[in-house]
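Progress note, sequence design subtask.
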């Protein structure tokens, strides 16, 4: 069951009521306050929502950092099950009307809604995570070279497997997740010949729960482990928790995604099985967009995080990973090769 939307609006009870109504698909009669004092930034979550221990939580960390630094009272809103595109548009428009700036759609599913809302509120800066198709003077496309960090994850997996079989589990069969798979496979194959990579996608669409179903992730991981995989990398949002749980139960390695999952409290019981995580700095991207608006110089256009600018990376928190000289040397060499262009990482 989806959680009720979390709404934090400073001192405006009627605004809170209007925003809650918006999250449920009702209309808002609030007058535009886009020219009044900025209340802070607003995050509109997609599937998975807060608590995914992945990129939604990373976005929340960026919001929290901006609140602390700028004295904001920002907000984050979760969607309802089975909502339409119109519901997403209304959510973003209501947030802009309330006086939040920037308004950020967390996930590629918000692309049509960001396009529509940004046209209606040209004085508000909008951001969208994981999509670069929306082109407007007041839109920042916050995207990442996920394939680069995934390549490094593949290097680590190839040097960690004893069975010469590793796994990849994608949440939803879409181009974004294909980037994770492509980079991972290439990293494995470039590092150790003869290693088999087993790939599986949990669902065809996000609405089927590919990014929000730990049970689906656990079942898929159990299947790959039964087939001999002793390292499994998941790019599946909240579903990845099930993959990590299965890895721990079977005493094999899991590779996390988006955030440093070794450090996540919700995964503390399984941390000994999390070799590393292929991270993307969603926290930094959200914070920097908020800062740019605060400074009066809003970021717009495509803003891409890569290995060269620190936007993607491989986590080094697990001592077993950090202290493995062979893996560290191989990851360092691969990182240098990607940055200087001698290694071209595939995206599909």
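Output:
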């Amino acid at each position: 069951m989806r959680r009720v939307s979390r709404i934090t609006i400073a001192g405006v009870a009627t605004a809170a009521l209007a925003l809650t109504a918006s999250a449920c698909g009702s209309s808002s009669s609030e007058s535009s306050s886009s020219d009044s004092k900025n209340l802070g930034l607003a995050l509109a979550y997609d599937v998975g929502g807060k608590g995914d221990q992945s990129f939604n939580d990373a976005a929340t960390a960026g919001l929290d950092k901006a609140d602390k630094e700028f004295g904001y009272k920002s907000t984050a809103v979760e969607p309802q099950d089975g909502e339409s595109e119109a519901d997403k548009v209304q959510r973003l428009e209501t947030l802009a009307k309330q006086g939040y700036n920037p308004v950020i759609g967390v996930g590629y599913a918000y692309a049509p809604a960001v396009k529509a809302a940004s046209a209606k509120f040209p004085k508000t800066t909008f951001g969208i995570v994981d999509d670069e198709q929306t082109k407007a003077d007041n839109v920042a496309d916050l995207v990442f070279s996920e394939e680069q960090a995934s390549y490094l994850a593949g290097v680590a997996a190839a040097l960690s497997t004893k069975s010469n079989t590793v796994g990849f589990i994608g949440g939803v069969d879409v181009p974004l997740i294909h980037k994770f798979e492509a980079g991972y496979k290439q990293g494995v194959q470039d590092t150790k010949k003869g290693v088999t990579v087993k790939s599986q996608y949990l669902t065809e669409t996000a609405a089927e729960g590919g990014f929000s179903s730990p049970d689906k992730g656990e079942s898929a991981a159990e299947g790959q482990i039964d087939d001999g995989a002793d390292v499994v990398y998941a790019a599946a949002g909240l579903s990845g928790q099930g993959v990590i749980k299965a890895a721990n139960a079977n005493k094999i390695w899991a590779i996390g995604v988006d955030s440093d999952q070794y450090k996540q409290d919700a995964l503390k019981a399984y941390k000994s099985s999390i070799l590393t995580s292929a991270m993307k700095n969603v926290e930094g991207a959200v914070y920097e967009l908020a800062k740019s608006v605060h400074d009066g110089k809003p970021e717009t256009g495509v803003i891409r995080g890569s290995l060269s600018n620190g936007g993607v990376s491989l986590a080094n928190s697990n001592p077993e990973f950090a202290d493995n000289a062979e893996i560290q040397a191989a990851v360092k060499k691969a990182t240098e090769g990607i940055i200087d262009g001698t290694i071209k990482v595939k995206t599909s």
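Residues 175-191 form the longest helix (17 residues). Work on this subtask will continue into the next period as scheduled.
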